[in-house]
Amino acid sequence: MSPGDLASALPMLRIRGVTKSFPGVVANDSVDLDIRRGEVHTLLGENGAGKSTLAAMLAGLYRPDSGTMVLDGKPVNFANPREAQSRGIGMVHQHFRLVERFTVAENIALGDTSQPWKLDTRALESDVQRIGEEFGLPVRPDARISDLSVGERQRVEIVKTLYRGAEVLLLDEPTAVLTPQEVDALFVTVRAMRESGKAVVFISHKLVEVMAISDVVTVLRAGKVTGTVQTRDTNQAELARLMVGREVELSSLRAMGVRGSALLSVSCVGLVASKRHVLRDISFDVHGGEIVGIAGVSGNGQRELAETIAGIRAPSTGSISVASQSVGGKGPRKTRAAGLSFVPEDRLGTGLAPSMSIAENLLLTRPRSLFISKRKVQAEAAQIIADYDVKAPGPDAVTSLLSGGNSQKVLLARELAASGDGATSNHVLVVASPTRGLDIGATESIRKRLDDLRQRGGAVLLISEDLEEVLALSDRVLVIYDGAMVYECDGASADRTTIGLAMAGAIATENSGHV
Amino acid sequence: MIGSFASFLATSGINTNVWVVGLASAVSFAMPILFAAVGEILCERSGIVNLGVEGMLLCGVVAAFLAYDASDSAALSMVCGLLAAGALALVHAFLCITLRSNQTVSGLALVIFGAGVSNFVGEPVEGKQIEAAFTDLRIPGLHDLPVVGPVLFHQNVLVYVSVLVVISVAFYINRTRPGLALRAVGESPATADAQGISVSKVRYAHVVIGGMFAGLGGAYIVLVDGPAWNQENTTGGIGWIALALVVFASWRPGRVMFGAIAFGFALRANFTLQGAQITWFPAEVLRMMPYVLTVVMLIAVSITDVGNKLGAPAALGRPFVRDER
Question: N or C: which end of chain B has fewer CB within 10 A?
Answer without folding.
Answer: C
